[in-house]
Specification:
Elements lengths: L17 H10 L5 E5 L18 H8 L2 H14 L6 E4 L3 H8 L6 E3 L11 H53 L3 E2 L2 E2 L15 E14 L2 E8 L5 E13 L16 E7 L4 E7 L4 E6 L3 E3 L4 E4 L2 E4 L5 E4 L2 E2 L10 E7 L2 E9 L1 E7 L8 E4 L3 E4 H7 L3 E4 L1 E9 L2 E10 L4 E5 L7 E9 L4 E4 L2 E2 L8 E3 L1 E8 L3 E2 L1 E7 L3 E7 L1 E2 L4 E8 L4 E4 L2 E5 L2 E5 L2 E8 L6 E7 L4 E7 L36 H11 L20
Parallel strand pairs: 8-10, 15-18, 19-25, 26-33, 35-41
Antiparallel strand pairs: 1-2, 1-3, 4-5, 6-7, 6-9, 7-8, 9-10, 11-17, 12-13, 13-14, 15-16, 17-18, 19-22, 20-21, 20-23, 23-24, 26-29, 27-28, 27-30, 30-32, 31-34, 35-38, 36-37, 36-39, 39-40
């Protein structure tokens, strides 16, 4: 037999747990094992149970089954019969390990060609301690896993119970629907054998009263829309659609009920909420088609008629007033709506003085948020469901406005934005010159008050100072801090000069700048001015004078012709006396002034005091040549 198959195996693992046993199965499948046992008497020869010896003992052992062989070895060991046995057992090692663990004596594994003696009680104690430690760890792990599975199981049970409760409550509130009609609970059967006048009817409660213990209901038959009054007998049984008892006080206008009554006296003996009706509770965005008499609730559409009961807080309500913002409960039978009840109607919210808020927004509740500009564009008040709403208004120039408002059905609630606390902006106004007066919205601003603080929005600013042209501007404040500058221009009063020359068409220069030809009319700045007239063949002539603001000054300039005589020659000596002007030679004639300028020239040379400007100095206002 191949010795490689005889690998050492720790038999004590068979006592430590299932994990080690499984490892043994994987690592040591069906291996032959040889074990050696110590005997109290070392002189006795070992007994080989399975060997090639054909002794009688061997034949007996071979005739035994494997289980019996192991049990026999254990029994002989206990009785002290087996002395230093050496067993070479060819069987499933799992059975061998399990049985040999019961022997209680120390043992060692035998490998062919190698024999190890056992070391007695020390090895046994060590082996037992290892077994105890391993078993303790295994119990700890097992306890932890058990606790984990218990907690997980409890959580699963809790989740299942919660889901079951939710599903059950949903089924109770909304019975299962098959083909659009709720699955009815068993309709109570009324015995009419001894009561031939008993009848059944599905009806809509349109009124109720209780006077002197007489309970009366006004019911409208849904089959023919006919209304009648019924009384409830003292023993009348009232129940909901799940056959649970209810009181008369729980009946309200709009309930659809199934009744059993005595047709002779209209006395109801049994009443329960109809299993043929269906209630669609508290839905918004309900659409009413007045032309076709249809009501759309979600994805479903139903007919309504003149007998359909339309209520708001138990009072009749016009169907034309139902808006998508309203919360509506509808009770229907088949495709007909018999009850349209407005649970929460609508009112209106109006904002005034919106123009004072910059970049404003309004939030109503948690679902509606609009800008102030969007509210203004609607040109109508906002439609809000009735009740109490939390309103938040914010803007760049206001403190946050937070308040609770109550909206009533059909009523207008107004919020005046002018009552909100506005933020003040620092608006610095710079002027040139610096001492100019500042008027804000018509009121003089005192510079000692510092930088003006203005509300956001439009303001009229005017800046003025004596001798300067005033400026004004309408500004819009959109920031918390802003600056504007006004630069004033000095007032300039135009003055005019009229220049005439003799002869005409002379070139006129004003402060050495060519201005035109005479006669010339020119606007000039007030103050000193220098006029120069030039003309070919004449001497240039300049005059200086002062022009007062707004004055119109007239000046005449007479130009002198150039000297046509030749220059005086140097004295000539040693020449004969010669007549410079012979008899046939005449001197050149000087140009004469036109007659119309002679009088003007005379007046200019001898000016009239009445025509002179009123001045204190003695300067000649007409200048000098």
């Amino acid at each position: 037999m191949d010795e490689d198959k005889y690998n050492e195996y720790p038999l004590e693992s068979s006592l430590t747990g299932d994990d080690d046993y499984e490892n043994y199965e994987n690592d040591y499948p069906l291996v032959r094992s040889e074990y050696e046992f110590e005997s109290e008497d070392d002189d006795e020869a070992p007994l080989d149970i399975i060997s090639n010896d054909l002794s009688e003992n061997t034949r007996k052992v071979r005739s035994l089954s494997r289980r019996e062989t192991i049990e026999k070895i254990a029994k002989e060991q206990e009785e002290g019969i087996l002395r230093q046995p050496s067993s070479r057992i060819e069987l499933d090692p799992r059975i061998a390990a399990s049985r040999l663990g019961k022997l209680g004596d120390s043992y060692t594994k035998k490998t062919p060609g190698k024999r190890r003696p056992t070391n007695g009680s020390d090895d046994l104690n060590s082996t037992k301690q290892n077994k105890l430690d391993s078993h303790s760890k295994y119990k700890q792990r097992k306890t932890m896993f058990a606790a984990f599975y218990i907690v997980l199981t409890l959580m699963a049970v809790g989740v299942c119970l919660t889901v079951f409760a939710i599903v059950f409550q949903n089924i109770m509130d909304n019975p299962p629907v098959i083909g659009g009609v709720p699955t009815p609970s068993p309709t109570p059967e009324f015995s009419t054998t001894n009561r031939p006048n008993m009848q059944q009817q599905t009806a809509l409660i349109t009124g109720s009263s209780s006077i002197n213990n007489v309970r009366t209901l006004t019911l409208m038959d849904t089959s023919n829309a006919r209304s009648e009054e019924f009384t409830l007998s003292e023993s009348a049984r009232l129940s909901n659609r799940f056959d649970m008892p209810i009181t008369f006080a729980e009946l309200r206008v709009g309930h659809i009920v199934d009744i059993s009554f005595d047709a002779q006296n209209n006395e109801i003996s049994v009443l329960n909420f109809s299993v043929h009706s269906r209630e669609i509770s508290s839905r918004t965005n309900v659409e009413i088609d007045m032309d076709r008499r249809l009501i759309t609730v979600g994805a479903e559409t139903f007919n309504w008629n003149s007998q359909t009961l339309i209520l708001h807080r138990g009072e009749p309500f016009p169907i034309t007033s139902i808006r998508p913002e309203d919360s509506v409960t509808t009770a229907v039978i088949g495709d007909t709506a018999w009850l349209i009840q407005v649970d929460a109607g609508h009112g209106f919210l109006e904002l005034v003085n919106t123009e004072r808020v910059i970049n404003g927004t309004i939030m109503i509740g948690t679902n509606l948020m609009l800008t102030i500009d969007e509210v203004v564009e609607k040109e109508t008040p906002l439609v809000i469901s009735e009740g109490t709403h939390r309103v938040i208004i914010e803007g760049d120039n206001i403190e946050s406005f937070i308040d609770n408002i109550t909206v009533e059905q059909g009523q207008i609630t107004t919020i005046n934005l002018a009552d909100i606390d506005f933020r003040m902006a620092l608006f610095n106004i710079v002027t040139v010159p610096i001492d100019a007066d500042i008027f804000i919205n018509g009121e003089l601003h005192d510079r000692n008050d510092g930088v003006p603080q203005l509300e956001f929005g439009e303001h009229h600013i005017r800046v003025e100072r004596e001798g300067f042209i005033p400026q004004e501007q309408t500004i819009e404040i959109i920031r918390l801090v802003d600056t504007i500058t006004f630069t004033l221009d000095e007032i300039v009063i135009e003055s005019f000069i009229i220049i005439n020359t003799v002869p005409s068409y002379a070139q006129i220069f004003i402060d050495n700048v060519f201005a035109g030809t005479s006669p010339l009319t020119q606007s000039v700045a007030s103050g000193n001015i220098r006029i120069t007239a030039r003309m070919e063949g004449y001497d240039d002539r300049s005059i200086e004078f002062t022009v007062a603001p707004g004055e119109e000054a007239t000046r005449f300039i007479i130009l002198d012709p150039l000297n046509l005589l030749p220059p005086t020659p140097p004295p000539i000596t040693d020449l004969p006396d010669v007549d410079p002007f012979p008899e046939d030679t005449q001197p050149p004639e000087l140009p004469t002034l036109p007659d119309e300028y002679e009088e003007i020239l005379l007046q200019q040379e001898t000016p009239n005091d009445s025509n002179l400007p009123d001045i204190e100095d003695e300067d000649d206002p007409f200048g000098g040549g």
